[in-house]
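Thread: Modeling a multi-component assembly for a lab meeting

Hi all, long-time lurker, first post. My supervisor asked me to bring a structural picture of a complex we are working on to next week's group meeting, and I have zero experience with this. I have the sequence lines for every component (302 residues in total). Could someone generate the structure of the whole assembly? Inputs are pasted exactly as I received them:
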Amino acid sequence: MSGHAESGFELDPRLAADTAFVADWPLSRLLLMEDARFPWLILVPRRPRLSELDELRDAEQMLLLQEIHRAMALLRHVAPCDKINLGALGNVVRQLHVHVVARRVGDAAWPEPVWGKGAAVSYAADMRERRIDQLRNVPAPPLKPPLPMGG
Amino acid sequence: MSGHAESGFELDPRLAADTAFVADWPLSRLLLMEDARFPWLILVPRRPRLSELDELRDAEQMLLLQEIHRAMALLRHVAPCDKINLGALGNVVRQLHVHVVARRVGDAAWPEPVWGKGAAVSYAADMRERRIDQLRNVPAPPLKPPLPMGG
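Re: Modeling a multi-component assembly
Sure thing. I ran the full set together rather than chain by chain. Output:
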């Protein structure tokens, strides 16, 4: 829920309302979705006026790809996980954001996607803090340096 | 619906049943989803036994990223489009596949995701062929050579 601008970046207020701040990674803000039914992270590249993946510069897309991997690895560390769902939709909130969701067979939406399935269940305050602490303290592999895609 | 194996790759039969073959790109098989309600492409990396994005080698992930861009560009050429939805779910069909869907404000599922929303509407045969021809004949920018991500 950190609201500072970075080169004109401001988190969409609907994303801010539905999430808790976890960390600022080199490209993206890492958010925890406020829905205790699913271990659910959201990456928001801290660049202004983006809505589609291919509006990011090549090197930033590669960085985003690495941050998606890192988010996948974090989720696997903090929660049991049968499948990871990735999505970049943006029909309601246009600001480019990537969902990274740990799914379990038999979870509250299984095997459907999580979006629009039932009402979100808020975290109890201590559970939210514990989850955020876990996420911040997983030893993540260092990100590789961004390289241009060539050409 | 081409079924030839490539280094052990075989298209999941459920994906084959729900789609029409469009093309084999350097990494992925490009499929048209058999649902005339949405211009909807699916990319399936032609590698065996993949279910998660981070199981692809780095260079192949970059190639997939470029092929996602190319699919986005194709959709924008052949159909009006307000937003592109990207998703890699795999809860039902585990074989790694990426959905690239052109959305319009007011379309049959707007603003919800397309997955699991109502029944698919088959293309009339001539419309399917016309759409596939369009997709095959859009002058696409050449793919850039894959480079390792560094590190």
